[in-house]
Amino acid sequence: MSDARPWVLTVGPLLPALQSQLEQHYRLLDLWRCDSPAALLAEQGAHVQAVVTTGVHGASANLIEQLPALRAIVCFGVGTDAVDLKAASARGIQVSNTPDVLNDCVADAAMALLLAVARQVVVADRFVRAGRWGAERFGLTTALGGKRCGILGMGPIGQAIARRASAFGMQVSYSSRRPKPQLAYAYHESLLALAERSDFLVLAVPGGTATDGLVNQQVLEALGANGMLVNVARGSVVDQPALIEALSNGRIAGAALDVFADEPHVPAALRELDTVVLSPHVASGTQETRQAMADRVLANLAALFATGRVLHPVREGAQ
Q: Which terminus, N or C, of the chain has the lesser number of Cβ atoms within 10 Å?
C-alpha cells in the first residue's frame, strides 16, 4: 500500500515532540541528519511540498531552487530573516511563522536580562560562590525606578516589554518604522534620538537587511557611559565589534545579550567582561512557549494541505 502522506523536509533539529508529530503525519526528510544533503535533495527534493525550519537555519535561495514542488516554508519562531523571502515570493511559495505565542516569554526574558545587568545579579552570584561575602563588600548597583527605558521596535514583543518596564516605574519611549498613536509612550523618529534619551536601550526588532548594524558606534556613544544595552532581537542588529569596544572602554556601562553575530560563537572579549550578561538565545525558551510554537507549526502545515493556505503568512518585506 502506497504512502499518500505529503513530503516534508526539516532543515535543522526541532523539539523532539514536534519531530515525533511530523514523523507521524508526514513523509519526513531530515536534511540535518544525512551525510550528504546534496544527494538527498537530488534524489528526493522533487517530492518535497513543505519545509519546516527555524530562525537559525532558515531556507536559502539555493535550497528553494532544489525543491520544485515546494508550496510553503513553515518557520518555528517569528524570525524569518534567515529565509530568502524574495526567492520564495518569486515562486509563489508561502512562508509562515509562529506569531504572538512567544511575546510574553521574550518580554519576560528581556526584563530578566535588564534586571540582571542593572543589579549585577550574575556578578553577585559569583561573589557569594567564591566566598568573598564578609571579607569584601559588594558594590552598589543601578535601580530601575524612574530610569528611562528606550525600546527599539514597538511590535507585539516591544509592547509587552513596555508594559513590564512601566510596571517597574520606568519611563518608556520608543522608536519604530512608524509611530503608534494609540500607545501612551513617547515616540522618537530616530534611533539616535532614542539612545540619547535612554538609560536602558532594549532591542526588539526583526533581523534582516533593514536592521543590520543599526546599533553602531554612534548609537552606543549616544547611549553614553551610564547607559546599558539589552538585546533580545537578533545579533545582526548590533555592530558587535563596536559594542565590544564601547564596553571595554567604558563608553557604555553594560550589556545583556541573548543573541550574537555568529551564534553559538561568543567572542572572548564579551565572555570576560563582568559588565555583560550572556544568554544562549533562549528568550522564548520555556516549555509552554515552545509547545505553543510547535502547535502553530503543525497547524500551519495542516492548513496548507487541507486548504492550500497557511494560517500565519509572512510577506516579503515584512522584516
A: N
What is the number of structural domains in the chain?
A: 2
Tell me if 77 sits within 8 A of 57, measured CB to CB: no
Residue 253 gets which letter from DSSP? S
Q: Are residues 10 and 147 in the same domain?
A: no
pLDDT tens for each residue of 196-214 = 999 999 999 999 899 999 9
Same structural domain, 263 and 116: yes
Q: Is 178 among the catalytic positions?
A: no
197 labelled catalytic: no
For 51-106, the pLDDT digits (tens) are 999 988 999 999 999 999 999 999 999 989 999 999 999 999 999 999 999 999 99
Whole-model pTM: value is 0.91
Q: 1 pLDDT band (50/70/90 cuts)?
A: low
Could you say which of 71, 164, 234, 290 is catalytic? 234
Residue 115 lies in a domain: yes
Catalytic, 312? Answer no
